[in-house]
Amino acid sequence: MRILVTGAAGFLGVNLCQRLLDDDHEVIGMDNFVSGNSENLSRLSGHPKFTFIRHDVSDYIFVPGKLDGVMHFASPASPNPSSPFGYPNLPIQTMKAGALGTHNTLGVALANDARYMLASTSEIYGDPLEHPQKESYWGHVDPISERSVYDEAKRFAEALTMAYHRFHGVNTCIVRIFNTYGPHMQVDDGRAVPNFITQALKGEAITIYGDGEQTRSFCYVDDLIEGIVTLMYSEEHYPINIGNPEETTIKQFAEVINKLIDNGSSLEFLPDSRGPGDPQQRKPDISRAQDLLGWSPKVPLEEGLQNTIDYFTEQLNIK
Ligand code: NAD
Ligand code: UDP
Questions:
Q1: What are the angstrom distances between the C-alpha of 215 and each of 119, 127, 276, 286, 316?
Q2: 11, 78, 117: residue to mutate for ligand 1 pocket, most atoms within 8 A of CB
Q3: pLDDT band at 317, cuts 50/70/90?
Q4: 161-186: average pLDDT
Q5: pTM exceeding 0.90
């Protein structure tokens, strides 16, 4: 297939493009580097089946030649206001990537009669009142909080994707991605995994927002990408959760990283600057992915974290 991947310079984009190239597809990556890193692309550039277009997906998209697939991953994704490219600092760009970017990429899929994937998120469930989260749950989202620029853009994007499927017959699918970590995450994007690993590698205090009793379920990137391509190659149209259902409190998670790195860091509990919207619990119900795609995550947490620590060690030049 000949596939357009937006957000190609980002964490998931780079891992996804690499996997598609390994599967022998031709890949056109697109990014405007608002939260991604041009160095990330060095892994892909030079591959005979990879080309790159620097472009903002919020503007009209033109890709020469026929496409068989469009995968829309472009969006700022870190909720941390202390990172310059966290979405609270890019509120309008985030809404435009989810709204206009989704509209433009759906238009490309329609014009090409291509399979389309929207990268959605567990954030569409908001601070969930149902646990674990099934795809049938409608969510609990504050439409005007700082997080809303991301949550509501993704909810709009899902609605638009289903409208293109129902009204225009576009062959769409929607992946609801839960917290994922691994190589090619940006060191300074402010999410828990890069923060905790870089703090521990530098021997600094590990910053925990609030009491650390909030939960997340972390999936290793190779598992996630396997789920994503399996969904892309399938005929499913309705949203599917892809994530690892192993749930941990943030405090326990920080302790695992601290133990693996073993550099004498302490845990520092800070007031949560991210406001009341920080979801208190999150864990995917993955029975739809298991039943319809035959997919489950396989990589144990400590193994995935060790690979990620090795990557960050290299990035930070720490021996
Ligand atoms: P990332 O920030 O590393 O990558 C996103 C990429 O999109 C960046 O390279 C950025 O420059 C690019 N981008 C943003 N706006 C753009 C625009 N208008 N035009 C062109 N490019 C643009 O984030 P990520 O973790 O790789 O996330 C990728 C996608 O997966 C996002 O849509 C995100 O919402 C979704 N997602 C990720 C996670 C996760 O745990 N990583 C969880 C849920 C959903
Ligand atoms: N978190 C934290 N310290 C940090 C970064 C994040 O305690 O330095 C917490 C954050 O408050 C949230 C969880 O870790 O409860 C996961 O945050 P992340 O930014 O990775 O992603 P989210 O799941 O909130 O989108």
A1: 22, 11, 15, 17, 28
A2: 11
A3: confident
A4: 98
A5: yes
